[in-house]
Write a structure and sequence with these properties.
mainly alpha, 11 helices, 0% strand
């Protein structure tokens, strides 16, 4: 009986069904906790964390990991989500006003281009902000700043992340049942990109810290050597003075 069960659990069909089941569970949890709207950020962070743990760390505790991350990142996730929602609403209103005007009020044609500029902070921070929230403990300001830095350091990856997000949304809109697959699938593809970017950034940081430590160590050594040289010079001067005094006494 045990052998038969082991044979079933080791079969490719069982593994396929389990993988699909995990993807559906992760996506369903993400959608469920997006319903309150203000928790979308925390839910997105939990989605990323769960996929990372499942497919990178090979830890099979999907529901537990999702709820753990949701609870851990709830405050920061809500704040980040509100920042993006409020800022996006203001930018959206500004763009609508620039293109369509309001009643008899019409803005100059050149302002239609200017109205698009506030989109830049959203475009250049959003791809990394929730993965950073899921993986690192930082303040809100540091998370947004680091996200912008990572986008600048990894421009092709940043564009690829946006492409994945747009394609996932397009598939979901065209075929709504795909919503049970696209969140987890998109998160899986995104984490393949972001984790490499994180590793690259951490390597750069370690290299900079090592260089700084080496520089400090060299400066300490130089200071110590300089102090020893001064002490030696002082000792030589004292010896010279003693010799001069002795000569005078002889005279």
């Amino acid at each position: 009986m045990k052998k038969s069960f082991d044979h079933i659990t080791n079969s490719w069909l069982y593994r396929l069904c389990k993988t699909i089941g995990d993807i559906v569970i992760i996506s369903a949890l993400f959608l469920l906790f997006c319903i309150p709207v203000i928790t979308i950020g925390a839910s997105a962070s939990a989605l990323y964390y769960t996929v990372y743990r499942k497919y990178v760390k090979k830890i099979d505790s999907v529901s537990h990991d999702f709820m753990h991350s949701l609870k851990d990142n709830l405050k920061n996730g809500i704040i980040l989500n509100l920042i993006y929602l409020i800022f996006s609403a203001a930018v959206g209103f500004n763009i609508y006003f620039a293109f369509c005007g309001m009643g008899d009020i019409k803005l100059p044609d050149w302002y239609t281009v200017v109205s698009l500029l506030p989109l830049i902070p959203i475009i250049f921070t959003f791809p990394f902000v929730y993965p950073l929230t899921a993986r690192f403990q930082n303040s809100i300001k540091a998370t947004i700043t680091n996200s912008f830095t990572l986008c600048m350091m990894n421009f092709p990856k940043f564009l690829l992340i946006w492409l994945i997000i747009i394609v996932a949304l397009a598939i979901t809109i065209a075929f709504p049942p795909a919503v049970l697959v696209t969140p987890a699938a998109a998160a899986y593809l995104i984490q393949m990109i972001t984790e490499k970017a994180f590793q690259k950034a951490m390597n750069v940081k370690k290299t900079a810290e090592s260089a700084a430590e080496k520089k400090d160590s060299q400066e300490d050594t130089d200071t110590k050597t300089s102090a020893e040289d001064e002490a030696d010079n002082g000792s030589d001067d004292e010896d010279a003075d003693d010799e001069e005094v002795e000569v005078k006494d002889d005279e």
